[in-house]
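Exercise 4. Each item below gives a protein and its sequence. For each, produce the structure-token representation.

Item: Zn-dependent hydrolase (Roseibacillus persicicus).
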Amino acid sequence: MSSPPIQRALERIDLLGSISDNSNFRVRTLLSPANRRAAATLKDWMEKAGLIVEHTIDGSVRGILPGSNPEAPALLLGSHFDTVIDAGAYDGPLGILSALAAIETLQEEGIELPFPVHILGFSDEEGVRFHTTYIGSLGMLGQLDKARKAATDKDGNSLSFVLATEGWSNDASEICYQAEDVRGYVELHIEQGRVLEELQLPACGVSALVGQTRLKVIIEGQADHAGTTPMPIRRDALAGAAECIVELERLAKECESAVATVGQIEIHPGAANAIPQTATFSVDLRHADNEERLRLKNDFLKNFKFIAARRGLTLNWQTILNDDATPCDTRLTEQILDSVEATTGHRTTLVSGAGHDGVIFSRITPIGMIFVRCRDGLSHHPDEYASPEDIATGIEILVHFLRQQCTSQDG
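Answer:
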């Protein structure tokens, strides 16, 4: 399929990708100037497609296609448009723009769906600014709890304060989905892995999203002079953290299908001639089996305690995120696979190793996902890439899925 909606989607990915808060790399975090410009751009494209468009105070956007029965439960399509630091152009925006292209394709064909479709663009999924994920989707469920609202950014401002002082309050809508409002949530996303590339497949369905645990680990030692403190009596927090990180890697390698990452570390006082007193580092742990994930968490924390005690250090940690594995809805996944098979000739599912906004929407509605192949499995990187051909295939799958909904029994 080579159509104007697909060509527009490809052009829009490039245009959205050019919006950044830094001229040297791509970054858009919650309510930053670039995040706001991206939201306004999405609103403009949705309005040009004839959708009824709204935004929330956190900067998320929604475009509504009413369908022939505007009062029926809505099908939700979309993804997020915030980014990590030095990001690629496809993680998140591809899902929003593919959904818009699919709707534009149906409009060109004169097809009216028998229920509303809502295209959602979430202002924050990555959690970079406040170190807490899913702010956009949680906001649309009215489930931003006290802990997330109390989270602070690098300037010490809480999320609740930022929403009150920086929020997109002008003409903002309060969007709060309930279970009875929704028939399902479907998201198209790059795989962020190498499996489709190895299988030589352009796209597939998704059976589940892995469980995730994120911790903030704090190791305290004793700052001292780097030149006058003998090695045997040092209480070096960074050396203790380094041993813990290597131990985490060892345990994760021994646990099949587990992945564990330390992506952030800070030390104090941070001088070349001072022994570190404090080392604070992140732990990101993922596994498709909840029991295995929790077992591994308990194992490495037990070993961290042992390492700290042996070195005369103190160990504390905070749980930042603890999400169980989320299965995709069986019935919805079968419908997606019908469309994958009709488009590609294959019927394949993968487990997502990344979290997505479907984790949040699964609290109220069935969820399903479509994966599109990405080159070298690379994501959260400026070289992240999905080919125009594979993007077109993903849009074709989504169009087929929507056509299928016109004739489904509950449509």
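Check: The CA atoms of residues 180 and 206 lie 24 Å apart.
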